[in-house]
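# nightly structure sweep
# worker-07 picked up a monomer target from the shared queue
# config: single-sequence mode, recycle default, output format = structure tokens
# input follows
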Amino acid sequence: MPKNLPKRLSELKEEPKKKVPRKPPKEKNVSQPEQTSPSAHPVITRIQAQKRKGRYNIYLNDEYAFAVDEALLIKYLLRKDMEISPELQKQLETEDVSRKAYQRALVYLSYALRSEKQVREDLIEHEFEEQADEVIDLLKEQRLINDLMYAKSYVRTAYTINRKGPQLIQRELVKKGISPEEILDALEEYPHEEQVDNAFKLGEKMVAKSTKRSSRETQIKVRQHLMQKGFDSDIIEEVLRELDTQKEESEEMDALRKQGEKAWRRYSKFEAAERRQKTKANLYQKGFNGELIQAFIEEKEMEEENE
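# output follows
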């Protein structure tokens, strides 16, 4: 037996085991789902045509948001799944109101020529006051509003169809917002001979209707009527010189009788002298000749005596 061997097993010593470093467990290659951040702005989920032609309802995230004109639909290329920022939505809504104001003005202008003031008043009436300046500027650029052109057309219509005088036309154009310079320019469309002709024809009609008036009252009524129609004094005097307002004596007496009968009945409750005086005064005011008045009263008194 070799000498170096231990006598007993208990004397045997175990050599310490070397520590082997553990390898880290392999990570499982599990693919993680990509985290998608929610859209920053709502998206168009539906574009619905309205019954009204050229108008569309826009739905954002399946809820109605606003309506737009077809022109804006095309201008901004609005389509399904398109994101709409608050700024863009506000812009669309602002432009849409302007489009509606413009369309309102076009409808108003479609019936007749209008002055700038008339268009503005109509826009304000339809609650487009904020858009009025913008719309009117655009219409001016398109030559759909032109106050001088409107004024000239108004003058031609007023004297051709309605036989209005220049002063009346001038007052009406002032109310429509036409400037004094444009009014003077437009009135050049109304020549002197047309003014005389219109005034004369109006005077003739007044004379024809004056069968119950005296010659003097007829002339007064013609003068008043022509003044109301807007003719100046020079035109009126020229017409009255040409117009035959003087009745024949028989015609004058017929007119006096028509007026006198009313007055005679009206004052029948008075005593004879006072009745006679009041009837005379009434007929004098109507422009009848004193001799004809006296003849009428004598005629009435004789009739009553013979009854």
